[in-house]
Amino acid sequence: MTLALASPGARRWAARLQLLGSDVAFALMAVLARRLSRPDAGFDAGQLTVVRFVVGALVSLVVFWLRPGLYRPVNYRLLITRGLSGGAVVVLYFTALERIPTGEASLLYNLFPVIATVMSFFTFGERPTPHLLGAVLLATAGVALVLGGGSLRLGVGLGEAAALGAAFFAATSANVIRGMRATDNAPTIFFFFSLAGLPVAAPFAFAPWPAHVGFWGLALLMGLVAFVAQVLMTEAYGELSIPEASVWLQLTPLASYLLAALLLGEPLSALGLVGVLLGVAGVAYGTAFGHRPRNEQRVSPRSATPASSEES
Predict the structure, then answer these.
(1) Quick one: which of 158, 230, 247, 302 has the most CB atoms within 10 Å?
(2) Is 226 inside any structural domain?
(3) Would you give per-residue pLDDT tens digits along the chain (312 residues)?
(4) Does the residue 33 lie in any domain?
(5) Within 13 Å of residue 120, how many CA atoms lie on the same side as its CB?
(6) Cα(105)–Cα(6) distance, rounded to whole angstroms?
(7) Angle at which helices 76-99 and 45-66 pack, to 10 degrees?
(8) How many domains does the chain have?
(9) Does some domain include residue 301?
């Protein structure tokens, strides 16, 4: 049975599982990018972004060749907007990963669902509730613990600023994706994300490129993992609202923090881990309860149009 023919409940659970897979893939991408940013590997943020977009575009072309008719662009304005915004996200996030630990960068970046929730008031008429303010305060306390390494000393440098900038553009992208999923399928959205994002990243990739074959293999793996993560997330946005999707996406910083400790040897601290959990709890709380009940919300972009965008 295709996803388009499944019951609404089954589609929602499939979307939640897609987001779970996306969480793990995004976390692994962040860890690989952090490893490739080390001096012995020699990749900088611009180069990693270019690799990600080139790999994404090439894999998309292969998918379109294997499945004729899957490439179905409709809303070109939003497709290009999503690509430009996504390009800024990737450059800024990889810049953060160059300068600060993976768990810290991932936690700051994953504040984007709260920002997206605020934006959705203007884009979809969703009215935030007072719960959102409490969630922001709770998430901020978690960020303070992680940034201060348990000492509560906030130090905001270029890495932290880049991660917060990435969060803003990611929130913009989340709203754009949700608006597009009524007309455009996930592979098409990702293809435009790669194509339109490439010019954004190219000016930052003029430094000498590394020559080590092994690290190039890791870079290609990073691009493939990013492809999986992005397509799964975009597909899930076709079934879930921004608040519900955001709850599941908050598993990403926790997975990044733990994977970085396991694969890169980045230190874990008791208070740092509490900070991550507190931040995740705060953002999840805000995205779960920061809206009016579903029956008071406007009709979602997906339900307002036929389900013709389902490709599987």
Answers:
(1) 230
(2) yes
(3) 345 556 777 887 888 889 889 989 999 998 998 899 888 888 988 899 999 999 999 999 999 999 989 999 999 998 999 899 989 999 999 899 888 887 778 778 878 877 877 777 666 655 556 775 676 677 767 766 765 554 444 456 888 899 999 999 998 888 888 788 788 998 999 999 999 999 998 998 888 898 888 899 999 999 999 999 988 988 888 777 776 777 777 778 778 878 888 888 887 778 777 877 887 787 777 666 755 554 544 444 444 433 333 333
(4) yes
(5) 33
(6) 38
(7) 140
(8) 1
(9) no
